[in-house]
Amino acid sequence: MMGPVAIAVLLVAVMAPRSSAELPQLEHPPKEDGLLTVLAVGDWGRRGQFNQTLVAKQMGITGEKMDIDFVVNVGDNFYDNGLTGVDDKAFEESFTDIYTAESLQKPWYTILGNHDYRGDALAQLSPILRKLDTRWICMKSFVVNADVADFFFVDTTPFVLSYWNNPKNNTYDWRGVAPREKYITNVLKDVDKALKQSTAAWKIVVGHHAIRSVSEHGDTQELIQQLLPILQANGVDLYINGHDHCLEHISSRDSPLQYLTSGAGSKAWRGIFTPNSDKLEFFYDGQGFMSLQLSMAEVHLAFYDVGGNVLYSWSHTKPVPY
């Protein structure tokens, strides 16, 4: 049976897009039992501070119990301003030295958050980091084909206009992104095409920024206007994000789409709650992470706190197509 490092190496070898107009497609082999089990976490990179090590410990325990396939990493990987380069020790101090459990030695499929763009964004995409830690699989937008589910990772930071026209005291690394309008147009076109091509039982989109959130940052209007219509038109089941440092489940009132925030990997407790027009199923303003288990017919998710307690769980079943 192929080990996690071998899987990561295999996936690195197929990272090139099939054509210039398509997102990179990574193949993740399924387990023999047909179940797909993942953990999702974000907004964590603080060299172990703000309970990052406690969250990591519980992720390791839960990962072992559930025999996870991989980790979905929703961005803001290194605070406050990303990495300074491929030799920045923050990579080991915030990632390799923290997530040490055997069960977490699986691929970490990773996107960038806004704090990552404040440093050397290209460093996180570098194969040099994958040589330092083979778990690290980071790109801007890509697809992971995992048998029962396809995961569509979307680079959401360039969508947020304020990062461009009102960056305050921050500097963003827009190499390979500017001009903004062309980049966003291409991302939306590629995501729409990839979703239309997908035949997986579950379609799951992953972005750093929330489409819907009741916490500090709230809804991301640019994503509501530009990305959400594509998700709804293509029957996306789940949207997973970070950015807000909390755990949330919000149900759409006008589609089957479920919004899941797992941005509580370290600093949390914002003390802000602002309801929106969709249905809030669960909200926790503290540190933790999420698990997701999928079969052809059923999805089961759970949110955990730093003590490993299950704060909330949710299941959904849909007919299996024949």
UniProtKB/TrEMBL annotation:
Sequence positions that bind Fe cation 2: D76, N114, H208, H243
InterPro entries xrefs: Acid_PPase, Calcineurin-like_PHP, Metallo-depent_PP-like, Metallophosphoesterase_PAP
Annotated positions binding Fe cation 1: D43, D76, Y79, H245
GO molecular function, one term: acid phosphatase activity
Chief localisation class: secreted
Organism superkingdom: Eukaryota
Domain Calcineurin-like phosphoesterase: 37-246
Required cofactor(s): Fe cation
EC code(s) of this entry: 3.1.3.2
GO cellular component: extracellular region
Gene3D superfamilies assigned to the protein according to its UniProt record, in alphabetical order: 3.60.21.10
Cofactor note: Binds 2 iron ions per subunit.
Listed name of the protein: acid phosphatase
Organism whose genome encodes this protein: Eragrostis curvula
